[in-house]
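Following the same procedure, backbone shapes were mapped to integers, yielding the entry below.
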Amino acid sequence: MSEVELSFVMPAYNEGDSIEGVLDTLDRVVKDTRLRYEVAVVDDGSIDSTRVKAIEYANGNEHVRVIGYDRNAGKGYASELPHLKGVASTSSWLRAGSHSAPNKGI
């Protein structure tokens, strides 16, 4: 993938039931913009299938990266970690929860 123009940071904690749907919706919406983008899912120590499902999704989508750690450190740490790991400086923060609706308001 060429240089990223926009990064989405998506902290996720125990979102195994919704993570694939949220990623799919975000990906469909952002593809229409024709921007070079990435989605950084940060698994914040989930104890469910969040990380496994996010990794499976990322294996089929070059735009998605997954970062994770074993203990829940909170949304603040999860939001900042991708910047420390080299995610593009132009980013948007999104909730991974099932109440998220990335296609509304874009």
